[in-house]
Structure formats: C-alpha cells, structure tokens
Amino acid sequence: GAAKLVVVVAIFLLTFYVISQVFEIKMDANLGHIFARSALDAAARSTKPPRYKCGISKACPEKHFAFKMASGAANVVGPKICVEDNVLMSGVKNNVGRGINVALVNGKTGEPLDTKFFDMWGGDVAPFIEFLKSIQDGTIVLMGTYDDGATKLNEEARKLIAELGSTSITNLGFRDNWVFCGGKGIKTKSPFEQHIKNNKDTNKYEGWPEVVEMEGCIPQKQD
C-alpha cells in the first residue's frame, strides 16, 4: 500500500510538472506575440504621417491660421473652404451656390463670422457690392467660384475685391476657376490667390477648367 501511494504521488507530481511547463511555454508565446504586435503597432504609428489642420501639407507657425480651399468642379461639385480645421462652406454642408462663394473669418481669433454666395450668372451684383462694403476692417475674406463667377461682375465689384488684396479679379472671366484669400484693410496684395482661365483647348471638363486648390497659413491680425 505504501509503494502504491508513492507511485501515485510521483505520477501526480510528474503530471503537474509537465502541465506547468506547457502552460509556461504557452504564456511565453502569447506574451511574445503581444509584445511583437505592440512593437509593430508603435512602428506603424511612428511612420504614419501627421495630420495638420484642414489637411494641409505642413503645420502653421504660431499666430497663424491654417486654411485650405478649392473652387467648384464645373457645375456639379461645389467649392470647399476650411479654416482652422473648421469646414465653413462645402457641398456637404449645403451652403454653397453658383457664382462667388464667400466666407468671413475674424482676423484676430480665427472664428467664422459669415458665409454667403452670390449668383454672378443669373443674379444681381448689387447685393454682392453691399456685402463687400459691409465687411469690417481686420476680417479675413475667402472666396471661391462655382460654375460661373464673373458674368455679372462690374467695375465697382471688381475694385472692392481688389482692395481686399486680389490681383486676378480684374481678369476673372466667364466660367474661370478662382480661389482667393485676402483681408479687409490689407496694405499689400495677397499671396493667396489661384486662377485658371476657361479655355476650350485646355479645359478638363467640357466647358469648365479643372478645379483649383490652395492652402496656406494666414497671419493673425495683431493690434
């Protein structure tokens, strides 16, 4: 009886030892897999390019506002205006329209003030002129065309936009694509402007040129 007891105890201890060894091997394998996966995840995060405000290509310096904008595509896709990661106007927001689309932003805080569009094909230029005259000094002004933004523009409207820093507005023609960022009270011409002429030989879309895009960093207005 004593011999049998010794054998049973020995078998039990041997079984326990084997099970514990197998369990430790599995634990080591699982921990190794977890650590390896964590290392791969960390490497993936480190190689993933950073995202900047409005999806621009590089970060803006201090006391600057990030912006990105695009004109409309033919008469199908509306323009888009983003400032400080805030989409102010787009087809998704359903606040864009044929003509010239305008977003106003506080030059000191970067906060949006107003968004409007003015039909320069079938509308009246007078409300647009009154709107331009009402813009307060220190306001950032962003504009983008959709479909046609020039037919109803007259000399007075073009002059008011030129005073915001635009140089291309005098040449803006029927169905041209144009994006512009300037400011009320600006003392120099704005560096933020893109213009593509409507040309049947080079148009990407039938009757319309390709979309024009622009991004950059707007200096914050200082007192």
UniProtKB/TrEMBL annotation:
It holds the Pfam family ILEI. Residues 98-185 form the ILEI/PANDER domain. InterPro entries: FAM3, ILEI/PANDER_dom, ILEI_FAM3C. It comes from Oceanodroma tethys (Wedge-rumped storm-petrel). The keyword Signal applies. This is FAM3C protein. Keywords: Disulfide bond, Lectin, Secreted, Signal. The gene is Fam3c. CDD domains: ILEI_FAM3C.
